[in-house]
Design goal:
Strand content: 5-15%
Number of strands: 29
Helix content: 25-40%
Strand order of the largest sheet: 3-2-1-4-5-7-6-8-9
Number of helices: 31
Structural class: alpha+beta
Largest sheet: 9 strands, mixed
C-alpha cells in the first residue's frame, strides 16, 4: 500500500520517503560495500539499531545477537551427532534431514547450516549440481521461523546473498525464496486451525499457512537455535501459554515446590522442541543455547525428568557468565563475561548460559545419559570452538547422575561420598517448613526501634489520621504498589481489628540483624503474614532457618537459628522456617474482613509442646534408645546436630556444589553418644547465633581472654568517644538508598593491618584455653585484622579478617548490618547499645570460628559412622510431609 501513489497523500508519507531517498542517494555505494561485512551488519542491527528502534520489544522478547563462534560450534556438533549417533553419514547434507530454527532472528544459524552442507558436498567431490542441491536445501528443508518483521527481512537478505555468491540465486520469476517464515513459532503445531480471523494481507495468510504445514507435516529431525531468554510478561495465545503445563505437573504435590517460575520464553521453546522431536518425529536432535537455569533450579525438576525420559543422550556445555551466581568471576577470581559479550556490549547479558544438545534415537533408553563440562573466562568463545571435534570419552566431559535425590540435576553434585543418601534437613520435620514473612511495604511495619514503630502504626489505625500524614510516616502502606490498594487495605484492617501494641514482636531481617515488627494476620497489611508461623514465635521456642537452594556460590553456611520471626530473605533466597517445637493451641481466632470471616490460629498454648520431628526422625531416635523424645532435653537433638554439621567448614567444602542445588543434607551418627556430643556443639552454635540471648564469656559476664580485644568501639588515636557530639554517626559510606527505596551496600572505610602484640597475647591465652595454638586460632580468625570505621573519629578496632568476611546465607554479616545504619538512611546516630551490638556480633562470630576445629572433627566422626537413613524412613512410615 505504501508503494501505491494514491495511498501516500492520505498517509502523509511522501515527504518522509523523499527524506529517506535523499539520504540514501548521498551514500557512496562503492565505498560503502567495499567495507561491508555481513556479520558486522547483523551485529549492528541487534545492538545499537534495535536498541534505539524498539528497546521495549527487544527487552520483552530477550533478543540478542549470537556470536559466530557459538553458532559454528553448535552447527558442527549437530552435524557430528547426526553422523555418530543417528547413523546419518552425510550429516546435515543428507536430503532426508529437515532442520528448523524456531527463533531464527536474522538467519545466522540457517546460514551456518547451509555453509556446513556446502562444505560436505565439496568434500564428497564437488560437481556442477552441488549449487542446486544447496538451493533446494534452503528452499525445502532448512527452515526458520521469526516473529519480528525486521530480522525476518534480514534473514532473507543474508540467505539470498549467500546463495547468490554460491552461484545459485533465487529466481524471482519462479517465485523461489528461502524457507524462512514470519510466524509465531509457539502456535500451530497441533491439528489444522480454522482461522476465522482474517489477516489484513493475503501474503500474511499465505505465510502463516506455509509455516503451519512445516509445523504439522514435515519430519523435522534437527531443532537448533538461540531462543529468547526473558520472562514473558504479555498476553499469549492459549496454546502457547499452556505449552509448559506439562513441566508443572507434580511440582507441588510430588516435589513440594510451591514457588516456581517457568514463564521464561526459552522454556516454551524447549517444550516445542521436545514435543516436535520426541513425540512427533520420534527421533532427532535438539541443540539450544539458553539461560542455564534449567540445569539445576528446583523449578525445572519436572522438565529435566521429562527430558531424561525422552532423550538418550544429553550434552551440557555450561558457559557460566552469570552476574547473580558468580558475579561474572571465574573460580579463581578472574573476569568471566557472558559469552554474548561484544565490542559494543562488553558486559553481554546478566544471565548464565549453556549449550544443551539432546539426541533421541529410534529406541529410547528411558533415562538419558548426561555429560557435562564447563567453560570459564574471557576466551570461552574461542575455547568452545576449539572443542568442535572433542568426543565424550576424552575426559573433557564428566558424567552426571540425575536422580530424585538431587531433583534430576544436570550438574555434577559435587557432594562427598554418600551425600545424596543423607536425609535432607526437611526430612526431619513433622510439619513442613513455612516460608518467612514478606512485608513488601517499604519497612513501614518493621523498625530497628520499638517506640517509633508503635507510634506510626498507632497513627495508621487511627481513622482520624489524614492520608497526607500517612504518606509521610508509612509510605509503604499509603501508596499504591503492584496489587496493593492502600485505601481498600486500610478499610479492611480497621474493620477487622483495633490497634494492639501486643502484636509487636521481634523480627529477623538478616543474620544478626534483629528488629521489631508489627504483625497482623489481616491481609493485605503484610504481603505474606504467614499466620501458621506466628504462633510458634513464643518464649522457649526457636526456628531453624534454611532454604531450598542457593542463589550464589558464595553462600557459605546455609542455615541460621533464632527465636525471632524470620523474614523471607533472611537467607538468600526464599528462606523457610522450621520451628523446633510444635505447640498445641486452644483453637482459632475469628477475624472479619468486610463481609468475610477468616480463621487464624490462636497463640494461646493449652498443652505441652511436642518436638517437630517426622515419623522417620522419631524412628531414628528410638533406634538409638533415645527415650522421652518430646522432652526438652531430647526433642531438639537432631536440630542441634544439624547446626553443628551445617557450620562445619569441612562439611561446606566437601559438599559445596551439591548444597547449592538443594536442601542441605545432614548425615546422622549411627549411635547415641556421638549424637549427644554433636547436639551439644550445636547448642553452642545456636546460642551464638540467637541475638535474643546473651552468651556468658562472649557477650556478658567475664569476657573470655580471646574476645576481650575484638571489635571494641574505639576512638582513632585513643581517648573517649562522645555520643552527644556525633561520634557514633555512621558516615563512612557503608550504604545508600537505591532505586525503589532499596538499600545498597557501599565500600565504607576499612584499614587492614597486622595484629598488635597485645592483641596476639590475648588471642594466645584464649586459644590455649581451648586447646589450640595461636597459629591454629589465626588460621580460623584470619592472619590479619581490620579496623572498621563508623566515621573519621570512631571505629570498631581489631576485627580479624575471618570475622569481617564471615558469610551466612549469602550475606557478609557485619557489612550487611552496617549498610542499613548509614546516617543518611537511619536518620540518626547509633546508640551506645547499637555500637556495642556490632562488637558483640564480632565476638559471636569469633566464637563460632574458634569452634570450627571441633565442628570439623565432629563432622568427620559422623561421616565415618553414618546411620542409613532409609532404615529410619521405612520404620517411620515413609516420606516426610515435604516430600509428600
Amino acid at each position: 500500500q505504501v508503494a501505491t501513489p494514491g495511498k501516500l497523500e492520505p498517509l502523509r508519507l511522501v515527504e518522509v520517503l523523499d527524506w529517506a531517498a535523499a539520504a540514501l542517494n548521498r551514500v557512496d555505494r562503492a565505498a560503502f560495500f567495499s567495507r561491508f561485512e555481513e556479520t558486522h551488519a547483523v551485529q549492528y542491527f541487534y545492538e545499537p539499531f534495535l536498541e534505539a528502534f524498539d528497546p521495549e520489544l527487544r527487552k520483552e522478547l530477550g533478543v540478542w545477537y549470537t556470536p559466530p563462534e557459538v553458532v559454528e560450534y553448535m552447527v558442527a556438533r549437530v552435524d557430528t551427532v547426526l553422523r555418530e549417533e543417528l547413523d546419518v553419514a552425510d550429516g546435515l547434507a543428507d536430503p532426508r534431514v529437515y532442520v528448523l530454527d524456531p527463533c531464527c532472528g536474522t538467519g545466522t544459524y540457517l546460514l551456518e547450516v547451509l555453509e556446513r552442507i556446502a562444505l560436505t558436498l565439496d568434500e564428497k567431490g564437488g560437481d556442477a549440481l552441488n549449487t542446486d542441491d544447496l538451493k533446494r536445501a534452503a528452499m525445502t528443508r532448512v527452515f526458520g521461523f521469526e516473529i519480528m518483521p525486521a530480522p525476518f527481512v534480514i534473514a532473507h537478505l543474508q540467505l539470498g546473498l549467500f546463495l547468490h555468491h554460491a552461484g545459485a540465486p533465487f529466481s524471482d520469476a519462479a517465485g523461489e525464496r528461502a524457507a524462512v517464515y514470519l510466524t509465531n513459532a509457539l502456535t500451530g503445531w497441533e491439528k489444522p486451525h480454522d482461522h476465522a480471523h482474517r489477516l489484513p494481507f493475503p501474503e500474511l495468510e499465505d505465510e502463516r499457512d506455509a509455516a503451519e504445514k512445516v509445523k504439522r507435516d514435515l519430519p523435522i529431525l534437527v531443532i537448533l537455535g538461540n531462543p529468547p531468554y526473558n520472562a514473558f510478561a504479555g498476553v499469549s495465545p492459549t496454546e502457547e501459554g499452556e505449552s509448559v503445563d506439562v513441566y508443572k505437573r507434580g511440582l507441588v504435590t510430588e516435589w513440594g515446590i510451591k514457588k516456581f517460575n517457568l514463564d521464561d520464553l526459552y522454556v516454551r521453546f524447549f517444550r516445542l522442541a521436545e514435543r516436535r522431536i520426541a513425540e512427533m518425529t520420534g527421533r532427532g536432535i535438539v541443540c539450544f543455547i539458553s539461560n542455564f537455569s534449567y540445569l539445576s533450579d528446583p523449578s525445572f525438576v519436572v522438565m529435566r525428568k521429562r527430558l531424561l525420559e525422552q532423550f538418550d543422550k544429553i550434552w551440557i556445555d555450561c558457559l557460566n557468565g552469570d552476574s547473580r551466581e558468580t558475579g561474572k568471576r571465574t573460580p579463581d577470581g578472574m573476569p568471566d563475561p557472558s559469552v554474548f559479550s561484544t565490542e559494543k556490549n562488553r558486559a553481554g547479558i546478566q544471565l548464565g548460559t549453556a549449550v544443551g544438545l539432546m539426541v533421541k534415537g529410534t529406541t529410547g533408553t528411558g533415562h538419558g545419559h548426561v555429560l557435562f563440562r564447563q567453560f570459564w573466562g574471557a576466551t570461552k568463545r574461542q575455547d568452545l570452538l576449539r572443542q568442535v571435534e572433542v568426543v565424550e570419552g576424552d575426559g573433557q566431559y564428566v558424567t552426571v547422575s540425575p536422580e530424585p535425590q538431587n531433583r534430576h540435576s544436570f550438574r555434577p553434585s559435587g557432594g562427598s561420598g554418600g551425600y545424596l543418601g543423607w536425609p535432607a534437613i526437611v526430612d526431619f520435620c513433622d510439619e513442613a517448613p513455612v516460608s518467612g514473612l514478606q512485608e513488601m511495604r517499604r519497612h513501614s511495619l518493621v523498625d530497628i526501634e520499638q517506640e517509633p514503630l508503635l507510634a506510626r502504626i498507632g497513627r495508621y489505625y487511627d481513622v482520624e489520621t489524614p492520608w497526607n500524614e500517612l504518606r509521610r510516616i508509612v509510605p509503604g502502606l499509603a501508596e499504591k504498589a503492584g496489587r496493593f490498594n492502600p485505601d481498600q487495605a486500610r478499610s479492611k484492617v480497621l474493620a477487622a481489628e483495633p490497634f494492639d501494641p501486643a502484636r509487636v514482636c521481634r523480627y529477623g531481617l538478616h543474620p544478626f540483624d534483629t528488629r521489631w515488627c508489627y504483625w497482623s494476620p489481616v491481609r493485605p497489611l503484610w504481603n505474606e503474614p504467614r499466620p501458621s508461623l506466628r504462633p510458634h514465635c513464643r518464649p522457649g521456642n526457636a526456628f531453624i532457618v534454611t532454604r531450598m537452594m542457593a542463589e550464589r556460590p558464595r553462600e557459605q553456611v546455609p542455615l541460621f537459628f533464632g527465636s525471632a520471626l524470620p523474614d523471607y530473605h533472611l537467607l538468600r533466597p526464599n528462606a523457610v522456617a522450621i520451628p523446633i517445637w510444635l505447640d498445641k493451641v486452644s483453637g482459632v481466632q475469628q477475624v472479619t474482613l468486610g463481609d468475610q470471616v477468616s480463621l487464624f490460629p490462636s497463640t494461646e498454648v493449652t498443652e505441652e509442646p511436642k518436638a517437630n520431628l517426622s515419623p522417620s526422625a522419631r524412628a531414628y531416635l528410638r533406634n538409638l534408645a533415645v527415650s522421652n523424645i518430646d522432652d526438652a532435653s531430647c526433642g531438639d537433638l537432631i536440630w542441634m546436630h544439624a547446626l553443628s554439621v551445617g557450620y562445619s567448614p569441612a562439611y561446606l567444602a566437601d559438599n559445596g556444589s551439591a548444597l547449592r542445588q538443594d536442601w542441605p543434607r545432614i548425615p546422622l551418627p549411627d549411635s547415641k553418644d556421638p549424637l549427644l556430643a554433636s547436639a551439644e556443639l550445636g547448642r553452642q552454635i545456636a546460642a551464638l547465633l540467637n541475638t535474643e540471648t546473651d552468651v556468658p564469656g562472649v557477650t556478658s559476664g567475664a569476657i573470655r581472654p580471646e574476645f576481650r580485644a575484638i571489635g571494641a568501639v574505639s576512638r582513632t588515636g585513643g581517648g573517649a568517644l562522645n555520643p552527644d557530639a556525633g561520634d557514633l554517626s555512621v558516615t563512612a559510606g557503608w550504604g545508600h538508598a537505591g532505586k525503589g527505596c532499596i538499600t545498597m551496600p557501599g565500600k565504607g572505610r576499612i584499614v587492614e593491618r597486622d595484629y598488635s602484640s597485645d592483641e596476639l597475647d590475648t588471642l594466645r591465652a584464649g586459644a590455649e584455653a581451648l586447646g589450640l595454638t595461636l597459629e591454629e586460632a589465626l588460621a580460623h580468625l584470619g592472619a590479619t585484622t581490620r579496623d572498621i570505621y563508623l566515621n573519621d573519629v570512631a571505629c570498631w578496632r581489631n576485627v580479624p579478617a575471618g570475622i569481617w568476611s564471615y558469610t551466612i546465607g549469602g550475606y557478609q554479616v557485619m557489612k550487611k548490618w552496617l549498610s542499613y545504619r548509614e546516617r543518611s538512611l537511619l536518620g540518626r546516630d547509633l546508640s551506645k547499645d547499637e555500637a556495642r551490638e556490632v562488637m558483640n556480633m564480632a565476638r559471636r562470630i569469633a566464637a563460632i570460628l574458634l569452634l570450627e576445629p571441633a565442628l570439623d572433627a565432629n563432622y568427620r566422626a559422623v561421616t565415618a559412622a553414618t546411620w542409613a537413613w532409609t532404615r529410619a524412613a521405612e520404620a517411620g512410615g515413609g516420606r516426610s510431609p515435604v516430600d509428600a
